[in-house]
UniProtKB/TrEMBL annotation:
Protein name: Calcineurin-like phosphoesterase domain-containing protein
Domain Calcineurin-like phosphoesterase: 5-201
InterPro entries per the UniProt record, alphabetical: Calcineurin-like_PHP (IPR004843), CNP_phosphodiesterase-III (IPR050884), Metallo-depent_PP-like (IPR029052)
Family: Belongs to the cyclic nucleotide phosphodiesterase class-III family.
Annotated TM spans: none
The keyword Hydrolase is annotated on this UniProt entry: yes
Length: 265
């Protein structure tokens, strides 16, 4: 059985200057460390991905110089890639700089064999604290895509989480209209899974016929299950991280988190 391999990297929080810090870590160094680990010098048993999916919060402060530097890095990878925006991103600026040659905000789906990836913008109606929602147009587009699938199996990608992670400060800024989104997903029998970022932690949920995963960050990691903000204290979970997914023709999904140290969890 053939499998389509996806590498999901999210929450880069890249800075304007390469030496600037994000929560005490150098975001550009962590990005380069992750790219080196997964793509340039991978482990012998690690597959090369068929697609790189960037999960939003690509920049800490959305400026042209940061997006242009990231685009230069991506162009050197010789690898198809798509992205969704996060609450730290500027969708209009991304579209202006990247045009139609990149993923969302310039595209809303990607097809590979028997799989269709639905790329959703969850940054509407932000409150400046990290929240976001699917706009009415984005919600309508998702509904149409779910009701008129172009492949046997579908995977939804968005930045904000749809289900609680039991950290009050983070659940206050989850997808604002999550109930509406969940109602659509629950009615789509071909849906297999949902990918998100935003929480800087790894989580897994099962909901009826589909599953959802959050991917830990390339930038600083946050401690799970906390009433307020706290950086991850466990050294093993502090490294830049991402998620591998292998999507089978039969609709199966194999997934694991990968940290920029040898080995994965």
């Amino acid at each position: 059985m053939s499998r389509f391999t996806v590498l999901h990297l999210t929450d880069l929080h890249l800075t304007r200057h390469p030496d600037d810090m994000h929560h005490g870590f150098n975001a550009w160094q962590r990005w380069q460390q992750m790219i080196e680990h997964c793509l340039l010098s991978p482990a012998a048993d690690q597959p090369r991905p068929d697609l790189l999916v960037l999960g939003g919060d690509l920049a800490q402060h959305p400026e042209a110089i940061t997006y242009q530097a990231l685009r230069q890095c991506l162009d050197q990878l010789d690898l198809p890639w798509v992205c969704v925006p996060g609450n730290h991103d500027d969708v209009s600026l991304m579209r202006q700089l990247w045009g139609d040659s990149a993923g969302l905000p310039c595209a809303d789906q990607w097809q590979a064999g028997r799989w269709q990836l639905l790329l959703c913008d969850s940054t509407a109606d932000g409150d400046g604290r990290g929240s976001g929602s699917l706009s009415a147009a984005a919600l309508a587009r998702l509904q149409y895509q779910l009701q008129h699938p172009q492949a046997e199996h579908q995977l939804v990608v968005l930045h904000h989480h749809l289900l609680p992670v039991n950290s009050p400060w983070q659940d206050e800024v989850m997808t604002g209209n999550a109930a509406e989104v969940l109602a659509l997903l629950d009615q789509a029998p071909q849906l297999r899974g949902v990918l998100c970022g935003h929480v800087h932690q790894a989580h897994h949920w099962r909901r009826g016929h589909w599953q959802m995963w959050s991917t830990p960050a390339v930038a600083a990691q946050f401690a799970a299950g906390q009433p307020g903000f706290l950086l991850e204290p466990q050294p093993a979970l502090q490294a830049p991280a991402g998620r591998w997914l292998q999507l089978g023709d039969d609709g199966s999904m194999r997934t694991s988190t990968v940290y920029a140290i040898r080995g994965s969890t």
